[in-house]
Design goal:
By secondary structure, this protein is α+β, with helices and mostly antiparallel strands. Helix content is 65%, strand content 14%. It is elongated.
Amino acid sequence: MKAPRLLPLTSALLLAMGAGLSAGAHAQSLIELYESARAYDASYQSARSQYDANVAKADQARAGILPTANLSAGISRSNFENSNPVTDRSYGTRNATVSASQPIYRPANWAGNEQGKKSAEIARAQLDAAEQDLIVRVSQAYFDVLASQDSLAFVKAQKSAVAEQLAAAKRNFEVGTSTITDTREAQARYDLVIAQEIAAENDLRVKRIALDQLVGKADAKPRGLAAPVALPVLTPADVNAWVSQAEGTHPSIRQAELGVRVAELETDKAKAGHKPTLDATASYNVTENRNGSTASGLNSRTNSANVGLSFNLPLFAGFATQNRIRETLALEEKARSDLDIAKRSVTQGTRTAFFGVLSGMGQVKALEAAEASSQSALDANKLGYQVGVRINIDVLNSQSQLFQTKRDLAKARYDVLIGNLKLRQAAGTLKPEDLQLLNALLAKQ
């Protein structure tokens, strides 16, 4: 007697994944969740606040080359007594002074102003790095949820197929066309799939919590990939082109290059310790005496104005300047070494990310072929089981292999998409606009 026809795995899979799609009727796109995370993520907000603080600190350096002005005023009351001739009177004094100074030649201040400009550029590079990190973190969390959803859907579909196989084995045993071994093998496989389903449900729950915490939304629902999945082409296809881009744009290299310039300016400031300074100064003073003074009993008012130059030439500072120069020259060498380290690290990271994407794309192609082969093997084993040339365990093994291949394929596709973003991050070219490419691959609402 032939075994009853089994439920096709494709139908079971469509049912399982259809449930997931219906739950995502109001799902959000990758860009929507990124914008939400940009306004909510504490790490990115901290980086932006640090950027604002660094820019404000850099602007403070301009004060050294700008004029300064001060206003001072005072009032006092005095009592004067004299025995010869006998004098006893009180008088008051009021004064006000306005003073101003403009640096004319201060090499250290000019170098400090240039350092401030470079520090602002370093702050911009640091914020760019934080933004790129946020893009990758959001995308990783987004596709982690999709991968977990797919894994759960595949497990549910496998459970449905194994349940049908278990029912068929029981029916065949009851009519005497199979042994109890078939039933026990199917039962064991069904129990294993139940355990896998529990683990998949928990994994999905954890991944959703992580995404919600990152984007600041309760129960965020990412949209899945549209079928058929068309992975983006890797452009440019030359690793050296990516390395060249990285050397010119990567935030770490930009920071290191600016760090060298800041160190050189610090040496200029140290050398300025031997140089003179010249400032233009001006002041205007008004002093008024009421009821006279110690010298006269008459009221008086004095107005005085001064304009001049203030010159200062350092002569000897206990060798402090010379040692400061030695220190800054050593720090220059350190900054250049840090730049070499940054370039080597970025080059290695870019090459690693590039070949990782190439490997991932190769894995996708291989798994797509393996999926087709696994499906053919399962169909053959099911047919052989129906005609009695295959046993139950052959069908169960084929089912497990097919669904494992489907899970691996889905994950490999997500890894390639994330790998593309990480490659751009490694090259320092990643921008929020790059998410448009991935957003176009998502299913429409």
